Amino acid sequence: MHPTLQNTSSAISINQPTRAPSRWSVLARCIRAPFLVASLLPTFLGAAVAVGEGHSLHPLLLLWSLLGVGLLHAGGNAANEYYDWRSGADRPRPVRRFSGGSQVVNDGQVSPEGLRRVYRTCFLVALLLGFYVTALVGPWVLILGLIGLALGYWYTAPPAALCYRGLGEVTVGAAFGPLLVLGAYYVQAGCLDWLPLAVSAPVACLITAVLYINQFPDRWEDAAAGKANLVVRSQGESIAPYLWLTGLAAAGTTALLAWRSPCLAVSALPLVGLTVLAGRGARALYRTPERLEPVQGVTLVLHTLTNLGLIAAFLLV
Question: Which among 84, 71, 83 has a CA at the least distance from the CA of 39?
Answer without folding.
Answer: 71
